[in-house]
């Protein structure tokens, strides 16, 4: 069985991520969407919330599993016997960072974890989780960027937090 892993923060999941997930799920028998639980970052959503949102918005794709992970991606990949990592490229500005991660993972895994890149579909090229949070924080419309159920949770989160903390 050919399995791949799509790692990320997904804080929150956007239509850009979902586009990558759908396309990668067509290419592999099983796609693990791995949500990074990183104590060094302060995300808007807890890892449990991010996993729940991702599971909901991918519920119609049968060969996708969503899990959180801590620590190194190479360890998660090894534990699950996965040799391909999928990442998305929006613009040339993503490239340097993504290349560095890909080469690091290759080295750390003794060559066993390779990375493939899916270029963004043009309609999502401008989309990032950070811009979604910024637009929502200032009361803008994020419905073109994220599914309705995700949009509701982003707005709710900022309402709960009040206006003292931007979070993005
Ligand atoms: P990270 O914090 O690891 O960069 P993100 O959740 O921001 O995680 O993104 C995960 C992956 O999805 C990255 O490879 C990123 O380049 C890709 N990605 C993010 N937004 C888009 C988009 N709009 N189109 C295509 N790929 C995207």
Describe, in short, the structure shown:
With 168 residues, the chain is of the alpha/beta class. 42% of the residues lie in helices and 18% in strands. The strands form two sheets. Strands 1-2-3 form a three-stranded parallel beta sheet, with helices on both faces. A two-stranded parallel sheet has the order 4-5.
Which structural class fits the helix and strand makeup?
alpha/beta
What small-molecule ligands were found? adenosine-5'-diphosphate
- The dominant shape is globular
CATH superfamily: HUPs
Specify the helix fraction band: 40-55%
CATH architecture tag: 3-Layer(aba) Sandwich
Terminal-residue CA separation: 39 Å
Order of helices and strands: EHEHEHEHEHH
Total number of helices: 6
Residue runs with pLDDT of under 50 for 5 or more positions: 164-168
Radius of gyration: 16 Å
**Average of pLDDT:** 93
Largest sheet: 3 strands, parallel
Strand content: 15-25%
- CATH fold-level topology: Rossmann fold
Number of strands: 5
CATH class: Alpha Beta
How are the strands ordered across the major sheet?
A: 1-2-3
């Amino acid at each position: 069985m050919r399995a791949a892993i799509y790692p990320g923060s997904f804080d929150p999941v956007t239509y850009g991520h979902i586009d990558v997930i759908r396309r990668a799920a067509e290419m592999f028998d099983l796609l693990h969407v791995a949500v990074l639980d990183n104590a060094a970052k302060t995300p808007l959503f807890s890892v449990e919330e991010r996993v729940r949102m991702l599971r909901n918005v991918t519920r119609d794709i049968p060969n996708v599993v969503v899990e959180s992970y801590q620590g190194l991606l190479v360890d998660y990949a090894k534990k699950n016997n996965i040799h391909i990592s999928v990442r998305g490229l929006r613009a040339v500005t993503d490239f340097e960072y993504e290349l560095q991660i890909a080469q690091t993972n290759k080295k750390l895994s003794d060559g066993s974890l390779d990375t493939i890149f899916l270029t963004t579909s043009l309609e999502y090229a401008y989309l990032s989780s950070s811009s979604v949070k910024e637009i929502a924080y200032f009361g803008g419309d994020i419905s073109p960027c994220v599914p309705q159920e995700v949009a509701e949770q982003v707005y709710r989160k900022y309402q709960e937090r009040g206006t003292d903390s931007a979070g993005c």
